[in-house]
Amino acid sequence: MSELWPHARIQRCFFHIQQNVIRYTTKHPNLEAGEEILNLTNELMKVRSKQQAEQWKEKYDN
Q: Into how many domains does the chain fold?
């Protein structure tokens, strides 16, 4: 984790990140904001390498 996300203040496993998002948005959000954060989380779950982490960050870091 620290190699992929060296500046992360709190490190949590992807599973628990996803579960927290689903708890608050459900798997089928009604609001656009809920859809966006669920999609963001789903894309994060696919990150498996440092290169993918950098690509994810570039895409969503705005």
A: 1
d(CA 53, CA 33): 22
In-domain check, residue 56: yes
Report whether pLDDT(61) > 70.
yes
Put simply, whether the predicted model's pTM sits higher than 0.85 gets the answer no
Taking the C-alpha atoms of residue 56 and residue 29, their distance in angstroms, rounded to an integer, is: 22
Domain for residue 9, yes or no? no
Helix H, strand E, coil C: the string for the chain is CCCCCCCCCCCCCHHHHHHHHHHHHCCCCCCHHHHHHHHHHHHHCCCCCHHHHHHHHHHHCC
